[in-house]
């Protein structure tokens, strides 16, 4: 079903809903709604299925031709237009989405006295409005309750085709909603990574500035004094002047090496920075994070390795786990990332984890993955130095 969600999210405009600020700033006008539907990418794919509203319209004219059929036709055309633009309304704030959902629901309820059980044929459309307009935690239970109610009613009234459509609609709506949710989570993850990258760059600049000041401040002062002394001694004591010049050369070489070492540290992954990033990323997607407030002293190579383990573990949690809690623990010899999610499905690709295991093994450690219904735990353990 996850594959179905990934395939159908593009069909119904799951390009994310943008930020809350963007949604609130969007004007609620016909032109703006149409523009939002186009931006979502779902407008072309919403038009084709809505043509099936012809079925209840035909039944309405067959069973009660005349003014009632005209009313049914108008209501269903309005409902069809509302459904087509659900993909655009999905990019508006929650209050607008709820109002649009209520409009669609009221139109269907008003059709019951006019076409009776034939309104059940609209269940697939209404199931999709749940996942397109409602928050995921509301959409799934409400959509399932509605679908089961339609199935029971369809069986009781012997409209068996509607029962089959309800089952199919429930499955399609779940797939579409799951794809939309995954896309939104991915966008939130990318936004959090971008914010963390900006903060990390700023913090790194400050650190490098402090390091350069500490490294070069003393060296440049020493060079200035030695150069002044060498200039004074050049005529009176050439040997002493040469000693000062040799000291200047040594100091410059050491300062250059220190600057290169400081600059090379800009691109290194560190456990401490990855933990700070993890706290922000997990919080962004609504996962409660338990992370260490302080780390034990770690050698540079181990701090870098643990940073890669934490980064990969957090990425997997956000993308695949459906977890509500995650915990990171670090000591001198090991790092562990655990969640309370659904575990790693059998047969799923583990490319990232295999690469991480190879990295840990090359560093002389052991990498273990335990997964099940209670969640997943990644653990990297390093051997004690001999």
Automatic annotation (TrEMBL):
Transmembrane segments: 43-62, 69-92, 98-124
InterPro entries per the UniProt record, alphabetical: HATPase_C_sf (IPR036890), Sensor_HK_TwoCompSys (IPR050482), Sig_transdc_His_kin_sub3_dim/P (IPR011712)
Domain (Signal transduction histidine kinase subgroup 3 dimerisation and phosphoacceptor) ranges: 204-267
Stored Pfam families: HisKA_3
Entry keywords, A to Z: Kinase, Membrane, Transferase, Transmembrane, Transmembrane helix, Two-component regulatory system
SUPFAM superfamilies linked to this entry: ATPase domain of HSP90 chaperone/DNA topoisomerase II/histidine kinase
GO molecular function, one term: phosphorelay sensor kinase activity
Top-level taxon in the UniProt lineage: Bacteria
Ranges in a coiled coil: none
Keyword Membrane: yes
One GO CC term on file: membrane
Full protein name: Histidine kinase
Species: Brachybacterium alimentarium
